[in-house]
Amino acid sequence: MNPSPRCAYVLLWVLAVCRMNPVSCQNKVNASVGETVLLTCSVSEVGPALKDASVYWTDKDDNTVLDIIRNKPDLSSQSNRYKDRVISFPDRYQAGNFSIQMKKVQLTDSSPYDCKVPKLNFRNRVTLTVSAKRVEAGREQEAEPGPGPGPGPSGGAVVTPTSIHMTVLAVTVLSCFI
User: What is the pTM of this model?
Assistant: First the structure.
């Protein structure tokens, strides 16, 4: 069973459609009360595409965590609950890294956080879970404040195609061999 040339064109079309749709990344961060955490947001496109980029970080209630307007942090619309606790890394913007650091996390900070880059049709979701106590080596310890990790190139974010993309791709591939 050899795939027909028609299948090659269909596969290319499916891959092109998947490439044009929004990219969505997800990752999870666990922390204890009082710690500092890194919420990652890295895009693969760099250079001219990021010139004057605007990025919007929001929580589950659509409160503004941090806006980055034309590659500059903008605190004017930041929710009071994040004031003086959230920073970004402007020196990393041109490399596509729009990660933020949240200090002194609280139980109420447990939430999914979205990083949106409209110019690139990109959305990244980071789910933060804050617990009152840290479990370490099978025993509980009180949470101790400490510095969080520095921003990495991807921070463990995983690009996840939507289920419809995977279904269409699987059906297309299978139909080539039937």
Answer: 0.63
